[in-house]
Design goal:
heterodimer; A: about 575 residues; Rossmann fold; Arc Repressor Mutant, subunit A; five-stranded parallel beta sheet; 24 helices; B: about 775 residues; alpha/beta; three-stranded antiparallel beta sheet; 30 helices; 10 strands; ORC5_C (chain A); Origin recognition complex subunit 5 C-terminal domain-containing protein (chain A)
Chain lengths: ~575, ~775
Amino acid sequence: MLIHPSLARLSTLLAFQPPPFVFVHDPFDSLALYDFVGNISAGEADMQLAFAQVNAVECFNPRVLYTRIVNALAAWEPIWRTGGECWGGTERGQWDPSWDTFVETLRQLRQHLTLNEKGIANPSEPLAQLPSNEGPHFVVVFEKAERLKDLLPSLLIPLTRLSELAHIPITTIFHSAAPWSDVRPSFAAAPEPYHLPIPPLSQPETLHLLASLFPIRPDAPKISPYHSSLQPLYGFFIEAVYSVCGSNIKEPRELAYIAAARWPGFVSPLLEDWKAERDRVHGSDNEHEYEDDVGSHREKRRLAGEEVKGQRDGPDVAYPLPTEEGRMRLLRLFNQTFSSALTSLYPRTTHARAWARHNRATYRLSQPFDSHHNLLDISKAAVSPLSSLTRLAKVLLVASYVASFNPAKTDIRMFGRTPGGMRKRGWRHGPRKARKGKIAKASKPAARLTGPASFPLDRLIALYGLILMELDDIDVETSFAELELLKVHVFTTVTELVQMKLIHRASANSSASSHSGANSAAGGAGEKLEGSTLYKSNLDFDAGCRLAKEIGLDLTNLLWDSNN
Amino acid sequence: MDAETLNSSLEGAIYIPFDDSSQEEEEANDALWCSIPSRDLHEGPVLRLAEYDKAWTKCYARVQDIIHEFQVTLASELIDFVVNSHLADEEAMPPFQEIPAAAVIGDPTSRALIFDVVQARFDMSNDHDNAAPVLSCQLTNKSCTNLTTAVRSLVSGFIDKTSDDGTQMNLDPPKRHKGATNLLPYDLELLCAWYADVKEQHEQSPNLLVFFQDLESMDSTIIQDLIYICSLHISRIPLIFIFGLSVSADYLHASLPFSVLSVLDIEHFQIPGGMPLFESLISRVFLDPTYHPGLMLSPAVFELLLGSYTSQTASLNSFLSTLQLCYMYHFSLPLSVFADNNLLGTRNARSAIKLLSRPDSEAFSKHLCAETWPHIQDKQDLPPSMSWSAQVSQAHALVKQSKSVFFDHCHKFRIGFRVFLEMRTFLKENGYNVHDLSRKFPTLVALGLRGGLHVREVQNQLEFARKLTLAQSQILLIRIYEFLSTPDVGIVEEEILASIEGWMDNLTEITETTGSGIPSGASTPAQDGSTHQRGSQRSVSGTPNPAESASNFQLVQLKELIWNTFDTWFASHLKSFDELPLSPIWLLRASKATATLLNPSLHFTIVSALIRPQPILDCACCTDPQNSLADLPDTSVLFHRYLNSGKMINLYDWYESFAMGLEGESRGGSVNLGSRPHHSDAESDHDAGNDPLRTPRKPKKVIPRTPKKKIRSGSDRDRDGSGSEGEDEYGPEWKREVQARFLRSIHEMNLLGFLKQTGRKKDHVLRTVFDLLE
């Protein structure tokens, strides 16, 4: 197990002088790949420690939190046959889901553990007789402790003061990405914690950590990306990945993710070479062991279990690791793909397995360089997902974007027409320019920076009509336009787009209140009967441009403030 | 039920039994509607309904089959995904375990169907299946109103499944000790404990599949916490998520934070929809040579379908309802009764003719004769004084004849269209991807149905085909031959098949004689694309040199012959349907009303109903166009005044004018000094009973001395706060009634959105509707 230096400090502290409350501030998620409890329990303690690790998100309810802590401290595994019975069984009766019962149960648990340790199986002994320096010291670790503030706000202060309130030796550790000042309850109600900041991992530390994560499969055949003989090459590979991605990503977890996605492709030229070598030695009739086809390999593993592995590897075949030159060749082949992996995997536009499937290398390392073609051939023709929408929906979305990013009073200037049908002030001339000599109001930020503004349904429909007129679909001047604009499909499409979250409903409505439980669902007090419903566009500029292009318009021409 | 009971103050509730005796007949008549009743047969509606039923059931079944095929493919992919998840593979091993997830993108109806298929597959999986069993549960937005209920429904979704005995993975119910603390039903630890037990008892580790039916409608904050919680236990319980999304997987990125996205391993599954679905529906229902739907699309119907699909709602349901409405409209036309056969519901042709010769079907028969007359071949041979029954029987016989003509042509059209597309694909594959061939499938279908394909598109294609090299021509001919020789097609196309065989022989001869003389000649069909490209370019750029060789000249001649023959072949196959005799019977037609039915204009309907309520109310007294404004319902009266007003309306003035209108009406009405406030006039009772939508009729009670002035003065006094009691017997009552009716109508208009309050003037309202279509 890998030991993180900061956690080693904490474990020493816990072993000798455990503080009641520790706050571990980990802004870079450096501990994600470390075993937290394993690390802090590694110290040589002169007292017995009992650990409980709970996640604040999961323990959204006090009762869940209490049962989790008690079960973990008692190392109690609930089993299904007894209906998931918690520690204590029938002897201690059913808990009342209150703080007092929880604290009482903790005391009982401590007494129980102490007696067990001493070999006294007499639970009837009174609690008060237990000296405070005997018995185990409890350590409760809260992961994602910042979420306690919104999920269990009433328990935040008692949990920080757990040792005072329970009168037993217990340490509360909050592990959080947020700083203590954000988690801290107001009015100094919580004691000041022992503060342990976790710095980002340094380069050698990261490399060491990542290299230690090489997933060696003991049952892997010799020609497999996860055979232990490849570990030296893996170290080299990690260094290469770090040199490309390390400047952008600090989280070791993400670096490991990218490395895991790239590794099978990275070694495959070498494995291909090995395979060719094996075939040469064994003759061509040998069965392929390392299958490219994952499905069939999987099938084989599942059906035949353990039998397929490691039988064909004759001892006479040597599988040499690449020389320095071979490594350089590999690096040159794959260096560019590291950054493409970074751009698609870090934002999770694709996921590791799928990415690895699309980026297989199908050549041998010993092949001449020219034949390695289209390594970066991963960019599929990006089809806009919104292009499957109907034309009506597209026009409405463009109208919603215009309505959200143009001030309402500019509509008439952008789209207004004289009775003759000419535009009053052509938007083709572009938006207003700052006049010379007169300094434009600098205080007003650009529309695109302020985010979408809300607009009423009437304005959306009106803009929809005006955009249709720009497209020469209808003539708004005729009175039949109203007939066209207020059709049922227009309204149903708006509702549909709201459901798809492409348009956001800005005013309170009944569907929003129904989420927040039964009490507000009945009232729907936020609903205003009078006045129009307000909406907001939920598109970004690029999607808006794409949609406008699909219906045959240029979005920048429709925007008042398109330069910003 | 007498009026006394109704008026009694002692009765708390009154039951009015539903009387449907009078309406039954009416409804039956309404249901069987005919667009031209005057020309219909007596039993026409019933017969046509039966025909419609037959035709639509057939078409619907076909559409269902096609959809099912699509869905089964995707469902099996999903099933594979679910079964193969959580098996270790060599591809990539992330340093932490992720939750495998499938994002299924498509419209909600087809999504739900696919989910059902997948779920049914896993629910029914038996022991003989060697795949690991899968347990599934569904989460909807109703079960995810908050985090507690979401986790609870996830946990109970699996646990409850094993408690019934019917399923394959049943467990013994747990023995709970009384008084002990148990894990809570919304604790995932419980699911872990349960899963450990399942594994132990059945010695299998089933994957746990969770469906998120409609992810967009769920609260994203709850979903992200739920996913995060699940990810904490993924090493102990092999969960798999299936997300249902409507538009794109971008929603996942927009709504879930990075910390949640990074615990998922998402694969995308796109449900076929959009234009590909539409194209395959059209081509497989109406343009498939192996299938005959009984009716053919007309260009108008196709454009209606296309328009509503591309611009309004791109869903299967809307496609089906549009098509169904077109079918309904088609079968509302009198002649469509012959769509399937010409027997008119009788046993044989003779009785059908007898039915047609009956005096009550004279109008229909005349219509039929008029339709058939232009298509009777030898009009000279007809004796001038042909009897009526002979004419009818002749027309009747022609129906049968025309049917076979029409159906034959349909078949030929489908074949021709397929060959046309086949050629087009081939030309495009061979580098002729030029502007002339750029028209899309919908445009081609529309053109083809109008009979306009032969004018330009076919000519263009043949022009390119003439430029093909020898080898390419051979491949193209082989392709066409293969298509034409399929069993369903070959019967009618023997002639062209024989000629193709002859040409192929000729081409082979030329190949043999020239050997390598002709560029890229004598090559196998497995030539690679670049040779085609080069060959085609050469033949496009260079004109054949007549001096080159005799065989080359022969080849040019032969190619000319082949494609000229195809020219005539296409001309006969891609003819328009309109020229065929009696085509309206089998050519599906649409009216403008069909589109309006599917996509009505709400606003227009409401406004026109308020301006002219008579057609909507449809009662005897209201249909009289001579009726004055005062006879209209209250809301309508108010609306007329509203239209004449300015931008803002003073409520009091409005009320005044409304009261005046009522007064005018009462003056014009018959004097009835009866003391009952509700008159029992038969006519108005009928009205009130018939139409619930309608504003109750104004009582035609007339106050004997209700001059304008008095009402006014009464209102004035009312404003001042003093009553007008005692001045006349009916005054205050009448005034109260007018006020009540005014208020009610105002609220109705408010509800319909015609009024808008302003903060500035409390007694004024703003108009919201201005320029109206009159």
